[in-house]
């Protein structure tokens, strides 16, 4: 009986990661939950993101160049083009898979702030998170040490409550060391320089959907690296220029709920 239970547990541990990869891939391709017309389109969401960016530019918190987004569209002959200013290029070969008509392909750098900075008083108590305090799981588990901001404000990667981060170095990248930071002391922290941090514009992207994207085979398996055999990092620009399959916000929320429900059943 004990051997039978042990075998079942081993099988479960082998199957769970494979199933999770498949589920995440289905999710970002728009195949996990049905599309609902009343939820609108991703294009409407992009308008909200543009408004948020314009607001930050006016406040002096974002460079004006951040408003120069690309527009990716499908032509009548089923080819994909990207328009940046007056320049239009064929990006058909870059499109990895088809997505629902209510979704939109966008460059990751156009809808997130990458590695944003924090501003805080030197004596502000903050979270310090080295790589070993981020779990290598399909989830968002981490811990931290409490330190004064002045001890970590330089030489480390900044993040804040609501930011999503992932390890950019091997093998932590492939092991999916990633997290949605929350409940940090005074809402801020800093940690290992081997992190890439993404911050959304306003409340426009479901953080769990972003995490699922970062943990998906599409993002992990297609990454390119640079460096020595033992210290390889994703190449510069891989994250920023990666095509992001953007669904309407309500659909993102349904994807989160669906995946969490499946994960709960699988963990049993």
Automatic annotation (TrEMBL):
GO molecular function: DNA binding; endonuclease activity
SUPFAM superfamilies per the UniProt record, alphabetical: DNA methylase specificity domain (SSF116734)
InterPro entries the record matches: Restrct_endonuc_typeI_TRD_sf, Type-I_RE_S_subunit
Gene3D superfamilies: DNA methylase specificity domains
Superkingdom to which the source organism belongs: Bacteria
Keyword GTP-binding carried by entry: no
One GO biological process term: DNA restriction-modification system
Protein keywords: DNA-binding, Endonuclease, Hydrolase, Nuclease, Restriction system
Protein name (database record): Restriction endonuclease subunit S
Native species: Bacteroides xylanisolvens
Lineage per the UniProt record: Bacteria, Pseudomonadati, Bacteroidota, Bacteroidia, Bacteroidales
């Amino acid at each position: 009986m004990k051997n039978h239970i042990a075998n079942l547990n081993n099988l479960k541990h082998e199957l769970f990661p494979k199933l999770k990869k498949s589920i995440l891939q289905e999710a970002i391709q728009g195949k996990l939950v049905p599309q609902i017309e009343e939820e609108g389109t991703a294009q409407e969401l992009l308008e909200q993101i543009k408004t948020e960016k314009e607001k930050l530019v006016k406040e002096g918190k974002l460079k004006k160049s951040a408003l120069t987004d690309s527009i990716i569209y499908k032509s009548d002959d089923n080819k994909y083009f990207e328009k940046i200013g007056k320049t239009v290029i064929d990006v058909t070969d870059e499109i990895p898979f088809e997505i629902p008509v209510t979704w939109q392909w966008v460059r990751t750098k156009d809808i997130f702030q990458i590695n944003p900075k924090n501003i805080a008083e030197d004596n502000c108590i903050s979270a310090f998170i080295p790589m070993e305090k981020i779990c290598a799981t399909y989830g968002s588990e981490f811990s931290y040490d409490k330190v004064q901001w002045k001890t970590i404000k330089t030489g480390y990667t900044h993040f804040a409550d609501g930011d999503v981060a992932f390890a950019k170095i091997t093998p932590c990248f492939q092991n999916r060391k990633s997290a949605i930071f929350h409940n940090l002391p005074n809402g801020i922290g800093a940690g290992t320089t081997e992190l890439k941090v993404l911050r959304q514009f306003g409340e426009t992207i479901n953080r769990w959907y972003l995490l699922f994207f970062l943990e998906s085979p599409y993002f992990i398996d297609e990454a390119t690296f640079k460096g020595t055999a033992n210290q390889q990092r994703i190449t510069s620009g891989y994250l920023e220029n990666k095509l992001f399959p953007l669904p309407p916000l309500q659909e993102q929320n349904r994807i989160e709920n669906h995946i969490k429900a499946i994960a709960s059943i699988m963990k049993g």
